[in-house]
Amino acid sequence: MSFVIEGNGEQQVEQLLRKLLGNTSFGSWVGGELVLGKGDTITLVNPATGSGFLQYSDATEAVVSLAADTAVLAQTQWWALSASARGQLMWKCGAHIRDVAESLAQLECLSAGKPLRDCRVEVAKVAEMFEYYAGWCDKLTGEVIPVPTSHLNYTRHEPFGVVTQITPWNAPLFTAGWQIAPAICAGNAVLLKPSELTPLSSTALAKLIEQAGIPVGLVNVINGLGNTTATAAIANKATKKVIFIGSPQTGGVIASACAQRLIPCVLELGGKSANIIFEDANLDRAVAGAQAAVFAAAGQSCVSGSRLLVQGTVYEEVVERVASATRKLKPGLPWNEDTMVGPINNAKQFQHVTALVADGVSQGAVVAAGGMADNISGGENGFFYQPTVLANVHNSMRVAQEEIFGPVMSVIAFEDEDEAVATANDSRFGLAGAVWTADVGRAHRMAAKVNAGTFWVNSYKAINVMSPFGGFGESGYGRSSGYQGLMEYTQIKSVWIETAQNAAIQFGYAIE
Questions:
Q1: Which of 12, 112, 187, 504 is most buried by a 10 A CB count?
Q2: 268, 417, 474, 488: the active-site residue
């Protein structure tokens, strides 16, 4: 399907907003309608052109307060429904998302700079998230505990009430669905604060699920800045738990704010994942996997395999093959059907990538492919960076220790299994990792020894809503997705029912 963009994409965005939101002005989605912000003006920039295409105002505390009050009321209505009824409505959400999938994908492509082909895949995954958790609604069973008294003791899973979710700019629609679906499955209402750089698709999602039958106000999207709108949401008394996806620095600030209120939080933070190739691996598959691990989404993925660890006996061959294949990957305009690598999302991140590559070269890394900004016809002022391979990297270099969040691969040599494990674990992060080997025993050993919340064997980046996701170390704590992610949104209540006919209560025990 062709998607023709004119200028900075402003006209196309207006058309998509009119279709998905019924309005070309933009603000927060609160109680089933767009509510204009009260604060500073925020300009959205097309990453492929570098020019602004839409402005809106920071929500600030006033809009957050309205959204919180609305969420409290809607949550009571939602929790009063039967579990089966909630599941049926969630299933309808998935179907409705699929009905408008192309429009959602186009909106995400324009605002986030992600290749259209990738956006289509992510929209389908968001629909799958609602369908998966629809099936869990009526399966949140408790336990009967055989306590040594005359009581019937059982447990219930109950919602927190209202949760605040703060999502990032690299995958705005995906992470919105990733968190909203389990939250409402468990019976909660949501205050979603997407990145101020990419709020459009998340806001459209909130309206879509209301159109599918989810109560108005159950999911409110508060659009604005972190230090105003997000801060107000965390401080609001309605917020009972906070979920944050983003940088470790901001995660620390949010964890501190939650601690002051004595409310829990889940942190899904950065990564510097090690992708390990042994000499016995199928090198054709390993080289292809190494590229996909880093260059998909222009490297703007928390699980990016940005550290490629290669056994010394095949190091030169792997570097040569990866570099040769990488030179053929050309960045392109995200709305072109054949584009595989789009732009960096924003100017600040583009400068970060450029500076870290320069620092790596100054410390002795060798540019085997790429290594500079790219000039794209039709996107001359966009934030395009060549897919880059840095060889001769040592694990102590900044390019091996800091999250680049761009299309940059650092290739590090190792000699044996012990050194591979030591190098992989020599990082403050622990989000993901992978190994390529024909030795089944080694595969299991590596999976056990590498500190990572997700680990792949002879593949990379296989992620599904059914499986838990989260990190070790500075990659955060708590889990998203799967049953474990659902449990993050519930509280356990223990219920004691006295069954003895003539029971008396003394010192907390029932006595006949």
A1: 112
A2: 268
